[in-house]
Amino acid sequence: MKLKTLMAAAIAVNFAGVSLATAAEPQEMRKEMMEKIGKAMGGLVGIVKGKTAYDAEVVKASLTTISENIKAFPDQFPKGSETGHKTEASPKIWENFDDFKSKAAKLHDDAEALLAALPADQAAVGAAVKTLGADCGACHETYRLKD
């Protein structure tokens, strides 16, 4: 019985190591971060479109997710991660890294400002989405490869 338990534990540790190694790849990390930001934006857009009722906690959580993920996002673009893992990152990122970082910083700063003056109703969330969407679009137009 102990042998089976030890083998099961060894297999679990091995699989966990593989998952951690995959998640540690910068291409995968940035994909996960963008998915979190996209989901957070989706929560805000749901409020704007009236699909969900205004909820201050959802707004706060969404803005926090955007702020935290975009702050760390530029760190996920080390030299050598230009390709692989079905990346949508344009080579222009590494050519204009300071501009790329400034676009991420603008999104972060705007999300932080919106958190500080938390949008209090559907119309205010709409204005927030417009601001954040413009920030996202400015970066995606320049630094995201299109299919």
Automatic annotation (TrEMBL):
Heme c binds at C136, C139, H140. One of its GO terms (biological process) is electron transport chain. Residues 1-23 form the signal peptide. GO terms for molecular function: electron transfer activity; heme binding; iron ion binding. It comes from the Bacteria. Coiled coil: none annotated. One of its GO terms (cellular component) is periplasmic space. This is Cytochrome c556. It comes from Gellertiella hungarica.
